[in-house]
């Protein structure tokens, strides 16, 4: 029973500041026809005009959407000289190589070999460098 009362007290105490979220919370006057007095709720909060008890309504945000279509083989462009662009265009318009020709070209091409060196910084730590 003590746990239930403790949980209920925590919920009640946590709900008190929620009244501060109301825009224009006004104190209720017991005198009929009296002007509304500022300061409603247990925490406070003053409003001079109006009797709004809800947050002000704003229009919903509208988002624009654009659709972009393109080819599946799209590659980001990069700067190249005119001669390089012409050479690439000629290479792309050439007839496709056979599988055997592509394999032979791949074997004949010079492969880039990586080289790893280990150097030491001023503190004596080893740092690997690839070139």
Q: How many helical elements?
A: 3
Can you give the mean pLDDT? 75
Any low-confidence stretches, pLDDT <50, length ≥5? Answer: 39-47
Sheet with the most strands, sense and barrel status = 2 strands, antiparallel
Which strands sit side by side, in order, in the main sheet? 1-2
Overview of this structure, please?
It is a single chain. Helix content is 27%, strand content 11%. The longest helix has 14 residues, at 2-15. The two termini are 73 Å apart. It is elongated. The protein has helices spanning 2-15, 82-93, 99-108, and strands at residues 26-27, 37-38, 116-120, 126-130. A hairpin with a 5-residue loop joins strand 3 and strand 4. The protein has three helices and four strands. It is α+β, with helices and mostly antiparallel strands.
């Amino acid at each position: 029973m003590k746990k239930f009362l403790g949980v209920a007290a925590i919920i009640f105490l946590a709900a008190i500041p929620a009244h501060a979220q109301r825009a224009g919370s006004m104190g209720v006057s017991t005198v009929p026809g009296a002007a509304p007095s500022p300061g409603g709720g247990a925490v406070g909060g003053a409003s001079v005009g109006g009797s709004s008890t809800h947050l002000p309504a704003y229009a919903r945000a509208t988002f624009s959407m654009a659709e972009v279509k393109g080819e599946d083989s799209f590659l980001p462009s990069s700067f190249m000289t005119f001669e390089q662009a012409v050479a690439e265009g000629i290479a792309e318009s050439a007839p496709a190589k056979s599988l055997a020709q592509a394999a032979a070209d791949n074997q004949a091409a010079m492969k880039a070999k990586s080289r790893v060196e280990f150097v030491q910084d001023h503190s004596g730590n080893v740092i690997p460098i690839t070139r």
